[in-house]
Design a protein that fits this description.
- The chain is mainly beta.
- It has a single domain, classed as Clam (outer membrane lipoprotein receptor (LolB), chain A).
- The chain has helices at residues 2-9, 16-20, 108-111, 200-203; strands at 30-37, 44-52, 55-62, 65-72, 77-82, 87-92, 115-125, 128-139, 142-152, 157-162, 168-176, 191-192.
- It has a 12-stranded mixed β-sheet with strand order 7-8-9-10-11-1-2-3-4-5-6-12.
- The protein starts with a helix and ends with a helix.
- The relative contact order is 0.22.
């Protein structure tokens, strides 16, 4: 069911670049560290996120392979850069927009009676003002907890997510400010390849 919740709310910080931001000119430009914690809080994976009017860039390691994703809203394009191979793939015609937050029109909290969303209250996380939301699913006259969101009041996006199994994802070291436009461009030395030529781990 986590997949269902994620698809409706744009949850999981690993999907932020493709679902939550996508280079809106109204958004606040910033960079941040992204950390995904396993249930034991001892095992984690990290990455970087850059958001600006030129696009959204995420850097991560997937099964030992460095991968950079660049989403360009105006061009409806998603670029997958493979630094180890100095190559990239390109997808065009990709429509991306930010899903509604729990209290916004069109949110499943308002349109889907199966969802129960409670605003816990205002909190502070990594020095940022956030609103804490608890999301549950109504099922056979009972409520099943599914996620907690901490929505940054200025960035208008979730900067922390936590699930009942202990998995959590969060943004830290958030630095607001203009981002280098070159972060959202293809390096000149990179060669364009097809998806079939890319590493399997980079295209999953």
């Amino acid at each position: 069911m986590r997949t269902t919740v994620a698809s409706l709310f744009g949850l999981t910080l690993l999907l932020l670049t493709s679902a939550l931001w996508a280079a809106s000119k109204e958004s606040v430009s910033f960079s941040a560290d992204v950390t995904r914690f396993q249930a034991d809080r001892k095992t984690s994976t990290t990455g970087k996120l850059f958001v600006g009017p030129d696009g959204v860039r995420s850097e991560s390691i997937h099964e030992g392979t460095a991968i950079t994703l660049i989403h360009k809203l105006a061009q409806k394009t998603v670029l997958t850069l493979l630094p180890g191979q100095k190559s990239y793939t390109e997808r065009t015609g990709v429509e991306v927009s930010r899903p509604p937050l729990p209290d916004e029109p069109g949110s499943p909290c308002r349109t889907n009676k199966a969802f129960l969303c409670r605003q816990i209250g205002a909190e502070t996380f990594h020095g940022r003002s956030v609103v804490h939301w608890a999301i549950a699913i109504r099922e056979e006259n009972r409520e099943i907890p599914h996620a907690h969101l901490w929505v940054d009041s200025r960035l208008q996006m979730a900067i922390r997510e936590q699930y009942p199994d202990g998995l959590s994802m969060e943004l830290s070291n958030i630095k607001e400010g203009k981002q280098d436009p070159q972060l959202f461009e293809i390096p000149s030395e990179y060669k364009k390849i097809t998806v079939s030529e890319a590493s399997p781990t980079a295209t999953q």
